[in-house]
Amino acid sequence: MSQRENVNPRREQDHRKNSRRYQKRAAARRRRNTIFIMEIVLLLILAVVLFFVSKLSKIEKTKLDMDKIEVNEDISQESRKIMKGYQTIAMFGLDNRSNGNLSQGRSDVIMLANINNDTKEVKLVSVYRDTYLDTGDGIFQKCNAAYAKGGPEQAISMLNVNLDLNITDYVTVDFNSIIECVDLLGGVDMEITDDEASLMTGYIRELNELTGNKAENLTQGGTYTLNGVQACAYARIRYGGGDDYRRTERQRTVLTAMVKKAQQSDLTTVNKLINEVCGDIQTSFSNAELLALASQVFQYSIGDTTGFPFTKTTRVLSKKTGDVVIPCDLSDNVKELHIFLYEDSAYTASDTVKQNSEKIVSDTGFKSGDGH
């Protein structure tokens, strides 16, 4: 008789039942373990979300009155379609440390941050604050007057109407918060010329008095790791250091250096950075939108940066307008802007931009080809 024939059928049946019970119990344990792991992961995600929400609650949120946001209706459908592949955010820097009000005041810094939704490349454009543009109601003056006159809504409208953009969100920062942020990052490396080192002295003294810091002056040019006061002073150099053009370039240089260093920082530093800067920010983004942006922060890369207008000149038009930056002409500059931001080589200026361009030529006498 074979070994198989010696097996007790009842015992084999019991063995099979026990085996099935064991398998069921094992499967149940695996399911419980899987559920437990999923619960832990969800709790961790929730903890991270709550952590960031607690930080984001420090940011001042404002709901824009979209009825006050102007967008040119005559932008071509082709250009509108191309722009949908990007997120263009208006960024304003105010020097409002004295009153803490981020809804009023002339914008010391005007920037466009343009995010390519596919590649996550971020391009920065500084709009020279003295640029002669329509600031609302057909009034042409220095463009930074728009924020002072009508807050973020009018400043965004100024950018949309003059530059054929479709901006619906903004971030405003007290520009002096750069001091604390740079210090938390351990400074930023900059190459300074002899002229810049000399020109920084007055700004460093002013910022030391304002903030209670004791930052040292730079005796000569060279490569330095600038602290917060020094970096802010460097970004503020204007007269004698290339005027507003070089000034905005310095601002972009400092901002780019800060972003790169923040991306390399540990979580403790990032946490301190968030704590410090959040109280100096006002934005139209909701917490959910900010979380969505923050979740991709390490995917972003800073691409090319530039200033607007590209071709320009300066003149004192009157005592009222003062020394302004004149685009030569506006239509040509806006076309170059759309090529830079959106790679839209087929862009043509809307009738609104063309009319504003003609008005600027009429007021100033400077036309296409006159600038540098």
From TrEMBL:
InterPro entries in the record: LytR/CpsA/Psr_CW_biosynth, LytR_CpsA_psr
Stretch list, region Disordered: 1-26
Biased composition (Basic residues): 17-26
Record keywords: Membrane, Transmembrane, Transmembrane helix
Regions that span the bilayer: 34-53
Domain Cell envelope-related transcriptional attenuator: 106-263
Biased composition (Basic and acidic residues): 7-16
Pfam families: LytR_cpsA_psr
Family the entry assigns: Belongs to the LytR/CpsA/Psr (LCP) family.
Protein name: Biofilm regulatory protein A
